[in-house]
Write a structure and sequence with these properties.
Layout (H helix, E strand, L loop, with lengths): L2 H19 L3 H9 L4 H5 L8 H14 L21
Helix pairs in contact: 1-2, 1-4
Length: 85
């Protein structure tokens, strides 16, 4: 996956969720990664993150996405993880 393709969905998801919840991307970054500058750094020109990190963050969004907010159509949503038995 190209860098632009990796970071665009993450930024789009963070902006949509932040707007929906009335918070900044800093708050979403703290929830998703435990550090407030993840999305700020990702938004810099030429910035990227590891594929594993991107997958973990998209999974976090999928697991924590509010039911009253439509998932962005242009971003494939991961399947929900099954609950542990």
């Amino acid at each position: 996956m190209l860098a632009m393709e990796t970071k665009h969905p993450l930024v789009t998801l963070s902006e949509a969720l932040a707007a929906h919840q009335g918070v900044t991307h800093f708050a979403i970054s703290m929830r998703a990664k435990g550090k407030g500058d993840f999305f700020k750094r990702l938004m810099r020109p030429g910035a990227d993150c590891r594929t594993k990190t991107a997958a973990e963050v998209v999974d976090w969004f999928s697991e924590n996405w509010p039911g009253d907010l439509e998932w962005p159509r242009e971003i494939p949503r991961p399947r929900k993880k099954k609950e542990a038995a």
